[in-house]
Amino acid sequence: MTEVSFAKSFLSALDNRPIKLSPDHVEDPKSYAARGAYILPKMPKTMSKRKASSLAPGQERSLTVAVKSLRNPPLDVKLTSQTPNTSVLDIKTAVSQETGIPVDKMKLLHKKKPIPDSKVLKDLAGEGETNVEFSVMVMGGAAAIKTTPAQADVAQGQSGAEVLDTKEFWDDLKGFLLQRIRDKKIAGELGDTFQAAWKAKS
Fold it and tell me: DSSP assignment, residue 139?
């Protein structure tokens, strides 16, 4: 038998068979092969029940963020009332305002892993957690902290004994005395007494 004749006979045999089962076809369950019961494997970890949230609908939970560093410079900053949508960049900015460390010199770590600035607290905190702790690395150490020297307020205009020779000074003094004493006559007399005593001294 050639290959062509075999293929023709095989195809003709297939044509004689029904293409699909009839709509009213019913299989006899007794004809099924015996099968053993299939038991699902045990889970390696039991599923914990989800705790009911005590927050009102639409209310977000508040998180407390702790930023610590045992190296130089030592830091222990606590930020309260942070929303779950607070980003790591916002945390770094808040720490920078309190400590003077530039934001670009800080690197925050969560569970010893660096965290990008785009992450938010809800990505790091668990379902029922209210505290998130970061450790911070300061590039450059204590030398990276900005130190701004205190600037003394410089008095403008006249100063010293020159001020006492102006009418504005004594008017201001009488106004102050009037606020404290609440008697215009007595405040005026006391102001004149101070002015006369100063002129007599000078």
Answer: T
